[in-house]
Amino acid sequence: MICEEMAVTKPPGDSSAQPEGPSDLAKLRAEHALLIENLKAKTEELNKATMAVQQNVIAPLVRPEPGRNVMAEAAFVAQRKVLLDALTKARWSLAEAASALRLHGTPAVIKYIHSLELEQEYEAAKARGEVRPGRPKNDS
Predict the structure, then answer these.
(1) Measured between alpha carbons, how far is 70 from 81 in angstroms, rounded to an integer?
(2) What is the pTM of this model?
(3) 9, 10, 79, 117 from 14: Cα distances, Å
(4) Domain range spanning residue 55?
(5) Structural domains in the chain (count)
(6) Any domain includes 138
(7) Three-state DSSP string of 70-122
(8) Which of 11, 12, 14, 123 reaches 20 to 30 Å from 40, CA-CA?
(9) Is residue 10 domain-resident?
(10) Tens digits of per-residue pLDDT, 72-115?
(11) Is position 91 within any domain?
């Protein structure tokens, strides 16, 4: 770790370690930038892997209610995939997904989340912190 490699000094009465000079600070900034870039790359890889699992493993296993004909089942699976893709690309912004799908606002997206049985995926995205809060409600 970079802190172990650098010589640090402690000012009198201060228990935290401080860099010795500008070159140490530059090293810390470079290390920080590298860590941020690595984190972004790993996050993107994880998002792609998650989408692949949702599209290739989970979606084919989703079955609508028994008794639906093959065409209705195919439509259900296709609509579910389109909505899930739009929500993922919009980083779970309902307004952005509505715009991308040419729906009339977030209530339409919420309706489709329920009708296409995507509540679990939505809650999982909320738990991961991917769902951005919407417009605050007016308390008046």
Answers:
(1) 17
(2) 0.50
(3) 10, 6, 60, 56
(4) 21-127
(5) 1
(6) no
(7) HHHHHHHHHHHHHHHHHHHHCCCCHHHHHHHCCCCCHHHHHHHHHHCCCHHHH
(8) 123
(9) no
(10) 888 888 999 999 999 999 999 999 999 999 999 999 999 999 99
(11) yes
